[in-house]
Amino acid sequence: MTRRNSSTVADAPEADWDARAADFDDEPDHGLRDPRVRAAWADRLRGWLPGHPADVLDLGCGTGSLSLLAAEQGHRVTGVDRSPAMARRARAKLAGHGARIVCGDAAAPPLAPRCCDVVLVRHVLWALPDPASVLRRWRGLLRPGGRFVLVEGVWGTLAPVGVPAARLTAHLAPLTREVRLERLSDDPLLWGKDVDDERYAVVAVV
């Protein structure tokens, strides 16, 4: 799942996300239908994900666009989304790629500890009521030497919502041994347009 209004994902019923599934991919950075936008995200993922086949857990995967890119790059992908309609679309999108899509809460995935090498999350943490606790829970899903790949930001002017980069890196500091911040606001190809708000990725190795 990705950006919405200031109500939290935890408060949003599955039916709300189900209703959005049909047109969710219309946003350039959701559906990645524009080949230039798709290529921009694929290039970023190559730099963020391991250079060898890895178990990638895409939490709040939505319709599975990033999951598909990761699978196409040779990774073994599990996606989790709480919306049955989003999960169905993700399964269809990833058919034939050996990916597994689970319908469940991204904040508390129904998965075993140390099940993955990468926790990949885009635009989910900002909408959760206690990101620090969620990060600690996600940390338990990573194997030794694994990594977080977190894409977040701050959106809006009158009533901005989001997670500032400084806050997220502070949450990660006690959980990881290496944190790298990459600013994304100045790359319009990622979003299909120019943006002037804060958008970034954090890659943190445990």
TrEMBL record:
**What name is this protein filed under?**
SAM-dependent methyltransferase
Q: Which Gene3D superfamilies match?
A: Vaccinia Virus protein VP39
Q: PANTHER family, alphabetically?
A: METHYLTRANSFERASE (PTHR43464), UBIQUINONE BIOSYNTHESIS O-METHYLTRANSFERASE, MITOCHONDRIAL (PTHR43464:SF19)
Q: Does the keyword S-adenosyl-L-methionine apply?
A: yes
Q: What is the scientific name of the source organism?
A: Streptomyces capoamus
Give the keywords, sorted.
Methyltransferase, S-adenosyl-L-methionine, Transferase
- Give the compositionally biased regions (Basic and acidic residues): 17-32
Q: What Pfam families has UniProt attached to this entry?
A: Methyltransf_11 (PF08241)
Q: Which residues form the Methyltransferase type domain?
A: 57-150
